[in-house]
Design goal:
- By secondary structure, the protein is α/β, with parallel strands linked by helices.
- It folds into two domains: 15-327, Up-down Bundle (ABC transporter transmembrane region fold), CATH 1.20.1560.10; 349-608, Rossmann fold (3-Layer(aba) Sandwich), CATH 3.40.50.300.
- It has 21 helices and ten strands.
- The strands form two sheets. A six-stranded mixed sheet has the order 6-7-8-3-9-10, sandwiched between helices.
- Helix 2 packs antiparallel against helix 3 (69-115), helix 2 (29-61) packs parallel to helix 6 (146-168) and helix 6 (146-168) runs antiparallel to helix 11 (286-327).
């Protein structure tokens, strides 16, 4: 009973996914219908060939033929010419329709992915999503076009051929067709198995893509730690797993194909033996037996083609389930959810008893009752141990995640009541590890403001101390940065990220130690530019350096998911005892001293050179 219930569930899932995917074929209904019409005509013409061939043979064997055999042959050539034109038309229609369907599915898939909350991508592997976009889409594309037409063509040929077999000789037809029902039953069982197994095959392939993508993206780290053999071993393990999953499909497929081939030839031998005795007895002519044998082979090939198309359709059904799972998933934090905007946003930011855990780590509480207020135009420095939630505060401010409890308010308005797109436009973010996209420098700087003028871009580049090094490149602002900005140094990428954030002219700036990747000279230049840019803006900066703490209006120490200490740098530094905050002040001082020592050492080397 449990197996039957599972079959019903799978069938209902397939039906639901099929009905959803058929929506993408609706715009192509006319070309696909025309392709089906050509299939009906070409299949009908093809069915006439064995009958005509048998007629030619009988004419050739007659002492005085009723009509020249050449007439029939020329008629066949004409039909084949018509078939050739129609087959070319059908192929073109299916190719173009299939590509348009695939493009539509991929566009909807990509839109669905972009609409998901960030937590969704924390849980789902990138390689898996890319496999859905690439491989699964191809399966569905073929299922809605080529496989559908193949099943129709094979169905017309099989049914028409079977009818002509009965017309030529009902007795021989019974011998020839007796094996089709059991083969059909086996094909349906195998198709259901294949449908369920296809999901496992695709998931195994996704893990291969995930591994290869991770290694290629981080090839420098792999090389620096001499881990090529380890990564190769991991990749081989996943390839072997994929092979074993695919073998679960391939071996039964091979057995089924062999059995079908044997059964078909057994039927053919039986027809040949029994039909020969009928020719000898005069029950049928030699031409009729020849036509019958040709129809038998045609029906057999058509049935096998139908079985093959059916198994491909089951693969498409499995792929379709994965596509629909992504496409129909409703985001827990829709980007286009609407909500209020604050046209005269002053930059007042406050946290009220905020509790938060990452959805991918539900058992680890990151923030447990965080309360904090940053008045407009003030600078707050967050300090604390690694993993205490400093970067999480920045992620919550930009509405990447929703709080579990409590509220975040902008000018007294709950963040959940505001338009997420407006929130992200109102806040500028500079991460500790800046992200650049493939393309040129100008495109990266305009990423948040695509319609910014060249003058506006150059102005913020100057503020971020980036204009000079950009101008030194032969192509200037059109210089390609490479994948993830690999053609640029860490300091150059950081300054571009700062300029990109300033271009939005945000009311609130979130800085994750934005100057940490710069040398001493560049840091001073960028720090002074940031100080000028921060005037009139609310700033939340994650601090590791003593200079950052000292320049902030307020320093907040995060401990155990809440604020442990709050005050100015001077107030916290003067705190007596071994309070936890002093440890971070001393750590920042140590970082500062080490930076100074390294800069002095580099200056000494430059002098010696």
């Amino acid at each position: 009973m449990k197996g039957r219930a599972n079959d019903k569930t799978s069938a209902s899932t397939d039906t639901a996914s099929l009905s959803r995917l058929l929506e993408f074929a609706r715009p192509e209904a006319r070309p696909i219908a025309l392709a089906f019409a050509t299939v009906a005509v070409t299949s009908g013409i093809q069915l006439l060939f064995p009958l005509a061939f048998g007629h030619i043979l009988d004419l050739a064997l007659q002492p005085v033929p009723a009509m020249p055999a050449e007439y029939v042959a020329f008629g066949l050539l004409g039909m084949f010419a018509v078939n050739g034109v129609l087959i070319s038309l059908r192929s073109a229609l299916l190719m173009l329709s299939g590509e348009r369907i695939a493009a539509s599915i991929r566009s909807r898939l990509f839109a669905a992915m972009l609409s998901q909350e960030v937590a969704y991508f924390d849980r789902r592997a990138t390689g898996d999503l890319m496999n859905v976009m690439a491989s699964d889409t191809v399966f569905v594309q073929k299922g809605l076009t080529n496989n559908a037409v193949t099943m129709m063509r094979s169905g017309v040929s099989a049914v028409g051929g079977a009818g002509l077999l009965v017309y030529l000789s009902p007795t021989l037809a019974a011998v020839s067709l007796c094996l089709i029902p059991p083969l059909g039953f086996m094909a349906m069982k195998f198709g259901r198995y294949l449908r369920d197994q296809q999901k496992e095959v695709q998931e195994a392939l996704s893990r291969i893509l995930e591994t290869s993508e991770s290694v290629v993206s981080n090839i420098r780290t792999v090389r620096q730690f001499d881990q090529e053999h380890r990564e190769m071993s991991t990749f081989d393990d996943r390839v072997q797993h994929s092979y074993h999953e695919s073998r679960k499909v391939g071996v039964p497929q091979a057995v089924f194909d062999g059995m079908a081939y044997l059964a078909g030839n057994m039927a053919l031998v039986a027809v040949l033996g029994y039909g020969g005795s009928m020719v000898t007895s005069g029950a049928i002519t030699a031409g009729e037996l020849t036509s019958f044998l040709m129809y038998s082979m045609s029906v057999g090939l058509s049935v096998m083609s139908m079985f093959s198309a059916y198994t491909d359709a089951m693969r498409a059904a499995g792929a379709g389930v994965r596509i629909v799972e992504v496409m129909d998933r409703e985001s827990l934090m829709p980007s286009n959810a609407g909500g209020r905007t604050l046209p005269s946003f002053r930059g007042d930011v406050s946290f009220h008893d905020v509790h938060f855990t990452y959805p991918s780590r539900p058992n680890v509480s990151v923030l447990t009752g965080l309360s904090l207020h940053v008045p407009p135009g003030r600078v707050l420095a967050l300090v604390g141990a690694s993993g205490c939630g400093k970067s999480t505060v920045g992620a919550l401010l930009t509405a990447l995640y929703a709080v579990d409890r409590g509220s975040i308010r902008f000018d007294g308005v709950d963040l959940q009541d505001l338009d997420p797109r407006w929130v992200r436009r109102a806040i500028g973010v500079v991460a500790q590890e800046p992200v650049l996209f493939s393309g040129n420098i100008l495109d990266n700087l305009r990423y948040g403001m695509p319609y910014a003028t060249r003058a506006e871009v150059e102005a913020v580049a100057m503020k971020a101390n980036a204009h000079d090094f950009i101008s030194q490149f032969p192509d200037g602002y059109e210089t390609l940065v490479g994948e993830r900005g690999l053609q640029l140094s860490g300091g150059q990428k950081q300054r571009l990220a700062i300029a990109r954030a300033l271009l939005k002219d945000p009311a609130v700036l979130v800085l994750d130690e934005a100057t940490s990747a710069l040398d001493a000279e560049s840091e001073r230049a960028v720090q002074s530019a940031l100080e000028a840019a921060m005037k009139g803006r609310t700033v939340v900066t994650i601090a590791h350096r003593l200079s950052t703490m000292r320049s902030a209006d307020t320093v907040a120490l995060l401990q155990d998911g809440r604020i442990a200490e709050l005050g100015t740098y001077t107030e916290l530094a003067a705190t007596e005892g071994d309070s936890f905050d002093r440890v971070y002040i001393l750590s920042a001082a140590l970082v500062y001293v080490l930076d100074c020592a390294l800069n002095i050492q580099e200056a000494g080397r430059s002098t010696q050179a």
